Amino acid sequence: MGQTTKSLNEKQIAFIEKQKLYFVGTAAPTGTVNMSPKGGDSLRVIDSKTLAWLNLTGSGNESAAHVLQDPRMTVMFCAFEGAPLILRAYGTARAIHRNDPEWAIYSVLFPESIASRQIFLLDIDMVQASCGMSVPFFRYESDRDELDKWSAKQGEHGIQRYWLKKNQTSLDGFESQIAEKSGLKIDE
């Protein structure tokens, strides 16, 4: 049924580039496993062995905290139209923050947003393609604009205050290093 390879092929890259929704899975050695749906124009295939995705501000910061504990990450795509397919990219990830030198290299690949929190780079170790015959058909209508509206209302300083209040630790209490890596002072 499933086929595994060490990297993405051209057909898989074309499939990924058409997707409007993908899922990111992370876990620390202990505690909760996190699975986050992602959308918008937030993922890039850098090459057959590397994915980059833009992590926008949200109610938690599980991926960042988990990757610091254990860099394992899985990114999953599902065909919701056309031929059935589930595609998973497994590998090791790291977060790039606004103050990191690599931010300038990768941030230009994505639309500008004050909600931009981190960019994750996934170095792919294995790709698995499986049937996905039980995944239902869905139609894409549009991207949501609530995060854009909320972010604009908060402004850059409001977003940073939110990071300090809501994004410093995971559900299990693991540090995300958002304040340190973004150059924010805890008492702001």
Automatic annotation (TrEMBL):
Annotated InterPro entries: Pyridox_Oxase_N (IPR011576), Split_barrel_FMN-bd (IPR012349)
Pfam families, sorted? PNPOx_N (PF01243)
Q: What are the residue boundaries of the Pyridoxamine 5'-phosphate oxidase N-terminal domain, all occurrences included?
A: 10-129
Chain ranges passing through the membrane: none
Q: Entry's PANTHER family?
A: PYRIDOXAMINE PHOSPHATE OXIDASE FAMILY PROTEIN (AFU_ORTHOLOGUE AFUA_6G11440)
This chain belongs to which protein, by name? Pyridoxamine 5'-phosphate oxidase
